Amino acid sequence: MKSMPLMYANEADGPSTPEEQQAVQAAWMALLREAKAAGVLALCGNGAERAYLRRRLDELVQPSG
Length: 65
Known about the structure:
Elements lengths: L17 H21 L8 H14 L5
């Protein structure tokens, strides 16, 4: 069985400072890295779309350092 979580937030309640935005982005990237490492991240779309998304995700979730 596969399921997909939906992450939703009201923009009015979102981070208001650049520092808060960076913290939220860092948390999201950490979640993506963990999901990818656990093998539970599924990408949708046709073959070309999935390949593109996989490449972009690899670029985005690389640990900084």
